[in-house]
Each structure stands twice: as C-alpha cells, then as structure tokens.
Amino acid sequence: MEDKAKKSMNLLSMVFAGFLFLSVIIFLIIGRAVYSESHLQMDESFRKQLLTFAGDSASGFFTFITEFGSKTIIGLGTLLVLAFLWFRSKNYLAMAAMVLAVAGGDQINKLVKRFIARERPSILADVDGVGFSFPSGHAMVGFIFYFVTAYFLTKYCRSQGLKILIWAAAFIMILLVGLSRIYLNVHYPSDVLGGYALGFIVIAVLLHFYEMVFEYMKNRKQIQDNSEKTA
C-alpha cells in the first residue's frame, strides 16, 4: 500500500516538474518576444476568435467575472482561506505560505511589468485596466490564489469527488478570469498566458519549499513524541 502511494507521489512530482519546465519555457519565449516588441500573431487571432464565439452580449458577464481576479476579491478570499486554516488546524505554515504566495506573486508581477514595460491594448480603469500590460496581474495572481486555495482545501477533504470538484472550480475560475481580460481588451492573450506561466513558476517553487518544511516539522515532532514515550 505504501509502495503504491509512493509511486503515485513520484508520478505526481514528475508531472508537476514537467509543467514547471513548460511554464519556464513559455514565459521566457513570450517574455523575450514582448520585450523585443515582436509581433505576436496569437494576440490578434485569439481575441478575434473569442469575440466571435462570445459575442457582444458577453460584456456584462466578463465584466462581472474579471472582478474575481481583482485585488479586493483576492484579498478577501485570502482572509477567508486564512480563517479556514486557523479554525481547522491552526496550520501556521500553510497560512504563511498562502500570504507569501499571493503577496509575493503580486510584487513579482509588478517588478516584471516595470521591466518589460508593455503598453496595454486599451486603458479601462473601471476593470483595473491601467498600468503596464505584461504579464497580466489578474491572470497571474488569480492563478496563484485559486491554485493554492484548492491545494490547501483538498488536503482536508476525504471525498475524492469533492477534491475533483474543488480543483475543477479553481481551474474554471482561472480560465474565465484570463479570458475576461482578453475579452475586455485590457490585456493581450500573450499577457494572460505569460501570467499563467509565471504564476505556476511561483507556485511550484513556493509549494516545494512548503512541503520540505512541512515534512521536516512533522518528522521532528515524531522524534520528540517517540523520545517522550521512551523517557
């Protein structure tokens, strides 16, 4: 049984590492193209396809959805997750990881935006469409928040069906927030894809260190408990 669990964890780690490698490649390719002001065909073609598919009537829907990637909603959501982690298990390490992921991701996004200094396709202050464009803050920080939230919530779920539901809801929200930025024309598709890629890089690094520290603390506690029993 333990061997099967180890094999599953090893497979999951390999998949995670594969996505990390892919995210780094995607971010570097897009970032280099944007920095050199190269023309990206995907920026024009994808938005045209999205507008054709969604139509003008989806404006209200995407204006509503884009708020789920705003600082206000992400901030309130982070507080709710912190409250859950506190009342559920007083998991201070997870709480620290959650804050570091969201706040750190936001600061990294700002630094990269200043460095790349890409202008937006259009300015629309009503939906936070101001400042530099690459990478999309809504896409990046939204990706980080919803992914890390699902990661910690599913650790407290026994039902496999509920775990799948939580992950599905997280990825649907991530996708919709990204699409909303493109539809509203406050970001290019490459901004959103770059935001997703950089967001995953931040998550991968942070959760790797979280798991390392968590295992260290768990093993240390077991050693202390065993020493107390034998004393």
From TrEMBL:
Keyword Electron transport: no
Domain Phosphatidic acid phosphatase type 2/haloperoxidase stretches: 94-207
Keywords, comma-separated and alphabetical: Membrane, Transmembrane, Transmembrane helix
Species of provenance: Peribacillus deserti
Matching InterPro entries: PAP2/HPO, PAP2/HPO_sf
Protein name, UniProt field: Phosphatidic acid phosphatase type 2/haloperoxidase domain-containing protein
Record field: transmembrane: 12-35, 68-87, 92-112, 132-153, 165-184, 196-214
Lineage, uppermost ranks: Bacteria, Bacillati, Bacillota, Bacilli, Bacillales
Pfam families found in the cross-reference section: PAP2
